[in-house]
Amino acid sequence: MKQPIKRHPALQPWSRDHHHGLLLGWKIKKGFSAGIDIQRIKDYTDWFWKSHLKQHFETEDKYIFPILGNEHPLVERALEEHERLKSFFEHPKADTEVLSEIENLLNTHIRFEERVLFQEIQKIASAEEIKLLENAHKDSLDLESWKDEFWK
Question: Would you say residue 2 lies in a domain?
Fold first, then answer.
């Protein structure tokens, strides 16, 4: 059995966010398999993007990625994936293909950040950078405020 990744406490809030992102993908799949109206799923992804994921990306861009530098290939990949995800989340129509892309890319992106990018960052981050990370993340996701639990 694979050992869980040991995450530095300063990065753990972002890893918790990632868990919620993986759950979003699972909810999209559950909605598809249950034949839920696409607009209901889109409404949830819109809410998740605006109330949580957009801010998550902004804090990664501002506080985490500069540790390696925006020219680092791992950061370049993460930033490109952020842009692609943003375009899918901000797509105006409820579309099965777009929601499938969100589910697939978000899953791949989160796994990349957790298994590769964050591992590299916690290897090289200075004490000063760690301190900055510890104070940078504010939990913002209030799952209780969304009432249409179509995935259940």
Answer: no
